[in-house]
Amino acid sequence: MTVTVRFAPSPTGLIHIGNLRTALFNWLYAKRRGGNFVLRFDDTDPERSREEYIAAIRDDLAWTGIVPDIEVRQSERASEHDAAADRLREMDRLYPAYETAGELERKRKLQLARRQPPVYDRAALSLSADERATLEVDGRQPHWRFLLDQEAVGWDDLVRGSQEIDAASLSDPVLVRADGSYLYTLPSVVDDIALGVTHVIRGEDHVANTAVQIELFQALGGEVPAFGHHNLLTTISGEGLSKRSGALSLQSLRERGLEPMAVACLAVLIGTSHPVAPHHDLDALQDVVDLGDVSRAPAKFDPDDLPALNAKLLHDTAYGDVRDRLAEAGVGGGDAFWTTVRQNLTTFPEITDWWAVVSGEADPDVTLDDDDRCFVARAAELLPADLDATSWGAWTGALKAETDRKGKALFMPLRLALTGRTHGPDLAPLLAIMGRERMLRRLTKAASA
Q1: How far apart are CA 440 and CA 184, in angstroms?
Q2: Rounded to an integer, what distance in angstroms lies between the CA atom of residue 205 and that of residue 150?
């Protein structure tokens, strides 16, 4: 059996890090087993679905390294959905119901008042053909409910283990609205069957839907897939994530300069038995992540953890992995510059600031006290004629011997004069990149300011 999974976002907004969690669980599960990943756009809502969101979702997934093996749109499969609904009607598994929303709400309240479960009473099944015709003449258009078998439905969940739901405790679900449009359930099952989906991996908010969907798979003669329901990603306060708010959307995280693998690692490792640590590609991550390691407890995370994780990833990134990105950003200096500066980066775009500090023609504007100005002036006089890897030690050693300065008193005035900053990367390997002329000019400027 070839493993086939699907990620099925509705293109009604930008996907966020919580959506990425589901996409990654599916991607990693399939690729670890040599399977296929289907990107299915559930775009059957014409009022809210947008082409720009389809393009954004595709780009966001590609940014993290997820490129689907198959891409489909539900809106292009309406005839298959119609055919399945007709089959269910012929089997008497899809029946018309005429209650209004208000009538259903009154029934629900009455059941609750009687301490009965608020389950649909199947009153529509007792309507005669004449009664249905009368209702339709009066302007009532039916919605269509799926007739459940009302028996226990069980499955071995990939995350939660053995699960069972008594379908008798559920209302017959509405599959088709009165206007003829479909709710999520029917198109999803029909398309899962057509695409040969073998494993449905999704958030735990869908657990309650699973019994209905298993019965629907069986009614339509499809192979029932394996199901896995992972814990949802929430904020520290327990709030869920929403596409509508745009909070923590992948697009916003990209705009902040975060690395895709930092976002991916946090998205998929939080709420598992594994530490949230940086991994440099999805191949490395797939060797770590397993659905059996996912906790049943909520996966709460602090968005402020992302910058620190991003920094750890950059600090351990080899020059060869960023060579092309550095060239695109106009950053030179080669391996020596990257290896020296990366420890001071939180996000990759910050590298351009450090390149400007080291190689730019604009000299820092700093104000030193009289003693430090005299010290920097003497440093300019003692600056070696030729700069190499040993120059920093020889230069500062000579200054220390002559001025008796050490520690911060020795190094801080030099760092300020050369970079305009009180902290930063080790200057020793950067001297050759900075160049003697530029260093001399900056020291002289700081000494006279």
Answers
A1: 69
A2: 22
